[in-house]
Design goal:
alpha/beta; Nucleotidyltransferase, domain 5; Diaminopimelate Epimerase, Chain A, domain 1; 5-stranded parallel β-sheet; 5-stranded mixed β-sheet; 23 helices; about 40% helix; about 20% strand; globular; disordered C terminus
């Protein structure tokens, strides 16, 4: 292993610490990770849901909300059609709960058994026959062109909520398509999970319940400039800025009607801050005969947000957090806009008790689908996990109880390794509906039974995985040799379609190469999963065979596909040809070090410091520290099955830390001994044992200190 600590400019570190009020160690880690842009820093240093992006930045969101308002007024029947994985399950539950709370008669469906991914003709026909008129797809739909057209022929509208890439030249002809990965999408963040997109619709419906929905608003502010006046105005619709204007006016030099202000402000409700002052300034700037009808919002906002009461915009600008994270100038009109949006969101109950329940599902779905934990995903996951730890929602509470996790402080690792696999197991075993029912069931005893059923499915999935592994491991070794040690590619009827992803992940871990594992189905189709390793480009690999696939998609790290059995030999041939020009990244593992810590920083405060960078996961790995010259107090070889792990006690002077080093027993007495000093790279984790949670170090690598030769 090679340890690498990137250079961090001392000047950049000093500027970050000064501007954002963080300590030097935090600033150096941010700089070393390349988190220096104001917008990136916002989502690492703040967690207020106020900073979530406005759902109406999606081009189709207003159309979707209008259609749902009509459906409610007309008492229509609505169907939510989701996917079978954890993201699809959580997305489905989020929408069903929200739409029912909105007053809509809502049913739901997810693929069962061997049904294909995405909206199906059969589901459309059955829903139409039952008198349904509106379908919402979630975590699917962007590839369902034929199905959407079929629905239209039957008189059904379709709203697509998805987060997958569009592979066709045109989007499906749905009533609204909401997908952050659409090429021309104005939404500022591409990497929401399906559950994140579903939650955005929920947020939009909250705004729709208020008087602000579709109201055409203008915010106006006047301030003196020597012998002139600067008049600034911002137009908003659904709290999204749709235009702004700056007009410098010299008194007596220009008639109001000849300025750009009249057409800009026309037919809009005009709000100001400190109405008396603004009216006086307007009269001085435009003359006493110029009348502009304005409404002073300051008193009303002050009642709901006392910190703003009797305070000027200039003073509020000095206290504004938002201003810190702006690369461009942050003026008084920007302060007014920020306060107005915060006020409107509070009025809309933007972040209430219902959000805390839904965000638990958003967090789990986002983690399960390996979405990058950056931008607003950080707030969604952080607040969701906090809510889960404080009060697990119905369904999750029963599941956590039976998994022995109730009452424990759960993080992204727990979610990824202990919770979401159980939810995923339902879909992999062809019974995704069981997971949806768990989270929607009103009766506690029913939820308990469903939780038990999910856990049983997960155990069955693991059993099938073990059996399949024994069968296909020899095939995998042959495949690896056949493909020049670049890829494992195995397809067999012995592999259950629900565990292809699990087996592929295990193959990448064992062989350190990308893996493709496919299941041959009774209907003659082939369903496969791909997992990446060593920089392998899954997207480019799939594109070579795109015309062969019935369906395919996924992410940089994981993807899936299906094709006809007769096309499998051609797929193998194209894959082999593609690999000839591919070079995988070097196998040598590089450990990126975030900071070197002096021994006195290894105090009880270290876990709290680390927690500031959570949530950890995709695109934001756990902090890795380096410490040098650390004495080993004791070392024990441990392990339940095979005693091949090391448990160390390390002496940092003011504190002694327990440390665990996986699969490193052979290095004791070979590379170092007790009482030696070692240099080590490590993470900070939590050891859970007998109901106790204790901070510990998790060693990634270590070596005898270079200045060794003298025992500690």
């Amino acid at each position: 292993m090679r340890w690498v600590k990137r250079e961090a400019s001392p000047l950049a570190v000093k500027e970050l610490a000064s501007k954002y009020g963080v300590d030097a160690l935090t600033a150096s880690i941010l700089a070393r990770r390349g988190i220096t842009a104001p917008e990136d820093l916002l989502y690492f240093l703040e967690e207020d849901p106020r900073y979530l992006h406005n759902p109406f930045l999606f081009e189709g969101m207003e159309d979707a909300v209008d259609r749902l308002l009509l459906a409610r007024d007309e008492e229509e029947k609505v169907l939510v059609f989701g996917d079978r994985d954890a993201d699809g399950v959580t997305s489905t539950v989020i929408l069903v709960e929200a739409l029912r709370d909105f007053g809509l008669e809502t049913s739901w469906q997810v693929p069962a058994e061997n049904q294909a991914y995405g909206l199906s003709i059969g589901a459309i026909d059955a829903f139409a026959e039952a008198g349904g008129t509106l379908i919402l797809t979630v975590d699917c739909g962007i590839s369902n062109h034929e199905e959407v057209l079929h629905a239209a022929e039957l008189g059904l509208d379709v709203i697509i909520l998805d987060h997958h890439l569009l592979k066709a030249p045109e989007v499906p002809e749905a009533l609204a398509v909401i997908d952050p990965k659409l090429e021309d999408s104005p939404y500022p963040f591409r990497h929401l999970a399906g559950c994140g997109v579903a939650y955005k619709l929920v947020c939009a419906l909250k705004i729709a319940k208020t008087g602000i929905y579709k109201q055409q608003v203008a915010l106006l502010n006047v301030r003196p400039l020597n012998d002139a006046y600067l008049i600034e105005a911002v137009r908003l619709s659904n709290l999204v800025e749709t235009g702004r204007i700056r007009e410098t006016v010299v008194p007596g030099m220009l008639d109001l009607g000849k300025t750009r202000l009249v057409p800009f402000l026309q037919d809009r409700q005009i709000f100001v801050w400190d109405g008396e002052l603004q009216k006086k300034l307007l009269a001085k700037a435009l003359g006493p005969g110029a009348e502009v009808q304005v409404y002073d919002l300051a008193p009303e906002i002050g009642e709901l947000m006392p910190a703003t009461r009797a305070t000027s915009l200039l003073r509020l600008k000095e206290k504004s957090k938002v201003g810190r994270y702006r690369e461009d100038a942050f003026e008084e009109i920007d302060v007014f806009e920020s306060i107005f949006v915060s006020y409107a969101l509070k009025k809309a109950a933007w972040f209430g008790e219902d959000d805390l329940s839904l965000l638990q599902l958003v967090a789990l779905g986002t983690i399960a689908d390996l979405m990058p934990l950056k931008n607003e995903n950080r707030i969604l996951v952080k607040r969701g996990l906090a809510a889960l730890n404080a009060k697990p929602r119905p369904g999750l509470a029963e599941l956590l109880d039976r998994l022995g996790l109730m009452g424990k402080l759960l993080g992204t690792v727990d979610a990824a390794w202990q919770i979401t696999p159980v939810i995923n197991a339902a879909g992999r075993m062809g019974k995704a509906s069981t997971a949806v029912e768990l989270f929607l069931a009103k009766d506690g005893s029913e939820r308990a039974k469903l939780a038990e059923a999910l856990i049983a499915m997960n155990l069955e999935r693991r059993r099938l995985g073990s059996e399949s592994w024994e069968t296909i491991y020899p095939m995998a070794k042959e495949s690896l040799a056949l493909h020049g040690d670049k890829l494992v590619l195995v397809g067999d009827k012995a592999v259950h379609r629900g565990i292809t992803g699990v087996i592929a992940s295990k193959m990448t871990n064992v062989f350190a190469v990308p893996a493709v594992i496919a299941s041959f189905q009774p209907d003659g189709t082939v369903v496969g999963s791909i997992r990446s390793a060593r920089g392998f480009n899954i997207g480019a690999f799939l594109e070579v065979s795109a015309d062969l696939f019935i369906d395919y998609g996924g992410h940089d790290a994981a993807a899936g596909f299906s094709l006809k059995g007769e096309d499998w030999p051609e797929f193998l041939s194209r894959s082999a040809s593609y690999l000839e020009a591919v070079e995988l990244d070097a196998e040598e593992e590089i450990i990126e070090v975030d900071a070197e810590l002096p021994h006195d920083r290894l105090s009880n405060e270290l876990p709290r410091f680390v927690s500031r960078f959570e949530p950890f996961g995709e695109d934001n790995g756990p902090l890795v520290f380096l410490a040098k010259g650390v004495p080993i107090v004791s070392a024990d070889i441990v392990g339940k099955r095979d005693a091949n792990h090391l448990k160390l006690l390390l002496d940092f002077g003011q504190a002694k830390w327990p440390a665990l080093w996986w699969s490193a027993a052979e290095r004791l007495e070979r590379d170092f001994s007790v009482r030696d000093r070692i240099d080590l790279v490590f993470k900070v984790s939590i050891n859970r044992y007998n109901g106790q949670e204790t901070p510990q170090l998790e060693v990634l690598d270590a070596r005898r200190s270079e200045a060794e030769g003298v025992k500690a």
